[in-house]
Design goal:
With 485 residues, the chain is α+β, with helices and mostly antiparallel strands. It is built from 15 helices and 16 strands. The strands form four sheets. Strands 1, 2, 6, 7, 10, 11, 12, 13 and 14 form a nine-stranded mixed sheet that branches. A three-stranded antiparallel sheet has the order 5-4-15, with no helix packed on it. The chain is elongated and about 95 Å long. The structure holds adenosine-5'-diphosphate and magnesium ion (MG).
């Protein structure tokens, strides 16, 4: 499933590699004790270390190391017991140190792999090159004053994981699938909240084009791509631009480009020649990071079941199809909700109720699952009432609507409103007889061969029973009574 561009000179393949910055979930920063809450008042979460006051020394936050190792394990990657922090030197107004502490030559996590899910149930393995820990910068505020810029250092020093992929992605669909899967894994691991809007996940997208089978072309790196939609549009735009340049006899210069979400185009930010010389060197304030194998093993034991494993288990254990399973495992809380609801119930029927009715209904109300007025156990109870034929599937929809409105248990709604299904054939027979007696013309027409009228009789009986007659019993009785003569 690769997206080719049909150019004037033939077909072009798009080649993509991603550098994803993921903010680590931790109570404090990578090298200081300052808090990391999003949305706090500007400069309210800045320690002397984050503000780079002279003489301040960084102290490594063990929690961040744990989170990086956990993420590495979740990405099926090698964990490096020896890694090192380096200074990446550059000047930027929101970088008070004048350098960023990062890992260059010796990252904490090495090669790994992620399986992405594509259309038609296809999967593809994408290589992970590395994951390293680094500090985030602060934020310049240019819109607070007509002639001044301000700086908010709350984000300064927060821990980031930079996750670099191999150039294994071919086209926008694969790039979006990769980011989606990566975000899902990070959320399952609870190492990053994956929130694009709040900037806790940011992607730099490297794009090049080549004729199918040719060596890799020169790439451009696109910055500032802040949503899945933007990733797709930026790749489409950039690849088409490169094809046009090459087909018109030009060459692609390796450069950093910026995605403009308003004009929907990429434009040059700086070329490779202007690229910074970061003069990396080992940070003299920090020792090399040496971890022990049993630290890694202990973290491995805390790993949750990950999306791929859960997907396979849902298909095997519950007999669900690819679609149902993939919807249910999208979030850990959603999968847990389903499993609590399905406990002791028909798994397929429960999946239908969770996906179509509950998730569909919440979506319509603009609510998330955590705001659901209905608990998992109540969905289970409702499915149980259908399974033991206390109510029909049709009545269950009314009960469900009432549950959404009131949060009451299905048992109580059914009891209060007298919605139990009538399975007493004597009572149903009485209604069937009444319906047949009051529609002699239709009975005659049916018996003369107008089969389609059967539905009419079913409808009449159901209506008279206020939807409560057991449909199987109604069918059976009607068949036998309409035959007799
Ligand atoms: P740098 O050190 O300049 O950032 P890297 O070799 O680390 O360069 O690559 C950065 C990213 O660019 C990686 O995600 C990699 O997969 C991607 N990349 C490398 N070559 C290409 C290419 N020809 N086309 C698209 N992406 C590429
Ligand atoms: Mg890079």
């Amino acid at each position: 499933m690769s997206a080719l561009i049909h150019g004037k000179t033939g077909d072009w393949e798009i080649v993509i590699g991603m550098e994803v910055h993921a903010q680590v979930i931790a109570h404090s920063k990578l090298f200081s004790g300052a808090a990391t809450d999003f949305g706090a008042a500007p400069n309210s979460q800045v320690s002397l270390v984050d503000a780079a006051m002279p003489g301040m020394l960084p102290v490594l936050n063990e929690k961040c190391v744990e989170q990086a190792v956990k993420t590495g394990l979740g990405l099926n990657s090698e964990i490096n017991l020896y890694s090192r922090f380096d200074r990446k030197n550059y000047f930027y107004p929101d970088l008070p140190q004048g350098y960023q502490i990062s890992q260059f030559q010796f990252p904490i996590v090495g090669k790994g792999a992620v399986e992405i899910n594509l259309a038609n149930n296809e999967t593809k393995t994408i290589g992970i090159t590395r994951l390293h820990l680094e500090q985030d910068a602060g934020k310049s505020l240019h819109d607070q004053h007509p002639t001044k810029s301000y700086v908010d250092l709350n984000r300064s020093g927060c821990a980031l994981m930079e996750i670099v992929s191999e150039p294994d992605l071919r086209g926008p669909e694969e790039a979006v699938a990769y980011l989606t899967k990566l975000r899902m894994i990070l959320r399952y691991l609870e190492t990053c909240d994956g929130n694009f809007e709040e900037g806790s996940m940011r992607a730099d997208v490297n794009v090049s084009v080549r004729k199918v089978g040719a060596p890799y072309g020169t790439r451009c790196e696109i910055k500032n791509v802040n949503s899945l939609k933007a990733v797709q549009l930026a790749i489409e735009y950039e690849a088409a631009r490169q094809v046009e340049v090459i087909e018109e006899g030009g060459t692609i210069k390796q450069e950093t480009r910026l995605w403009d979400p308003v004009k929907l185009e990429t434009r040059s930010m700086r070329s490779k020649e202007e690229a910074h010389d970061y003069r990396y060197f080992p940070d003299p304030d920090l020792l090399p990071l040496v971890i022990e194998q049993n630290f890694v093993d202990r973290i491995r034991e805390t790993l949750p079941e990950l999306p791929d494993q859960k997907m396979h288990r849902f298909m095997n254990e519950y007999g669900l199809g690819v679609y149902d399973s993939s919807v249910l495992i999208m979030e850990r809380a959603r999968a847990d909700f389903y499993e609590r609801a399905a406990k002791g119930r028909d798994p397929k029927l429960t999946a239908n109720w969770v996906i179509n009715e509950l998730l569909g209904g919440l979506n319509k109300d603009g609510k998330s699952l955590s705001e659901s007025p209905i608990a998992a156990e109540q969905i289970g109870e409702l499915v149980g009432l259908i399974e033991d034929k206390t109510i029909s599937g049709k009545i269950a929809k009314d009960v469900f609507a009432e549950m959404m409105k009131t949060g009451l248990s299905p048992q109580k709604i059914v009891a209060d409103q007298g919605l139990q299904q009538v399975t007493d054939t004597g009572a149903i027979e009485k209604i069937v007889d009444e319906v047949l007696a009051s529609n002699p013309d239709n009975v005659a027409a049916y018996r003369a061969g107008k089969d389609k009228l059967f539905g009419f009789f079913v409808g009449q009986v159901m209506k008279k029973s206020q939807g409560k007659a057991n449909p199987d019993a109604v069918n059976e009785l009607l068949i036998s009574k309409l035959k007799a003569e």
